[in-house]
Each structure stands twice: as structure tokens, then as C-alpha cells.
Amino acid sequence: MSRRNPSPGEILVQLPWQVSATLALLSFAVLRWVLPAVESDNTFFNAFLPALAIIAQEIGGLGPMISTVPSEATTRPSAGKRTIVEDLRAALEQVEEIEADLKK
User: Fold this and answer.
1) Who contacts 55 (Cβ-Cβ below 8 Å, separation ≥6)?
2) Is there a contact between 52 and 36 (Cβ–Cβ < 8 Å)?
3) What does each of the 104 residues of the chain score in pLDDT, given as a tens digit?
4) For the chain, where are the alpha helices, taking DSSP H only?
5) Inter-residue contact 56 to 35 (CB < 8 Å)
């Protein structure tokens, strides 16, 4: 059985989060400033391209937040490395210990 080709989203998840953040910012810039500046003789595009700037402005904050999910959270950790969940559990245990010490 052959292995299927990974989708662009699957490839992006395996790359460092900085790549996703950069692509998100570039996409926002293109939608916000580049496409509305394009001039065309087509009246549909003259009306549609500025609307992309509005759409980019409305959903622009969501793209970077979603795309910067660290790849470590979605992949199997290497030997000896802790996952983000394990780090959060350890931090929570430390907070609980500090709270217990303060109550004494």
C-alpha cells in the first residue's frame, strides 16, 4: 500500500512555527495592501479587491493565532524532551506547592 502525499497543511504543521507566522503575515499584507492597489479594467475586480482588504482586516488577527500553534504540540516528542502539556502540568504542580506553602 502506497503512502499518500501529505497536504500543504500537514507539511506546514511539521515546519517550525516561525514559518507559519511568516506566511500568515505575508498573506495578511497581500490581502490588505497589495490586492486593493491592483488596477484593472474589469469592474467586478475593481469592486471586489478592496473588499478583500476589509476581510483581511476582520480576520487578520485569527490567522497568526491559529498558525502559530507550535509544532511540538502536534508531533511526537523526541526522546528526553518534554511536551508542552508536560511543561504546563509541571508549572501547575509548582503553583499548587506554592499555594500550599502560603496557606501554612
Assistant:
1) 31
2) yes
3) 456 788 887 787 788 878 878 887 888 788 778 877 777 788 888 888 778 777 777 776 665 566 555 544 555 555 566 667 777 788 888 888 888 888 77
4) 8-14, 17-29, 35-37, 43-59, 62-67, 84-103
5) no
Amino acid found at 55:
I
Among 62, 66, 52, 63, residue whose Cα is nearest residue 26: 63
**Do 50 and 57 contact (CB within 8 A), yes or no?**
no
Please, are residues 13 and 68 in contact by the beta-carbon 8 Å criterion? no
Residue 17 · residue 71 · CB < 8 Å: yes
Q: What are phi and psi of 62, to 5 degrees?
A: -75, -35
CA distances from 22 to 9, 47, 101 (A): 15, 28, 44
- pTM comes to 0.46
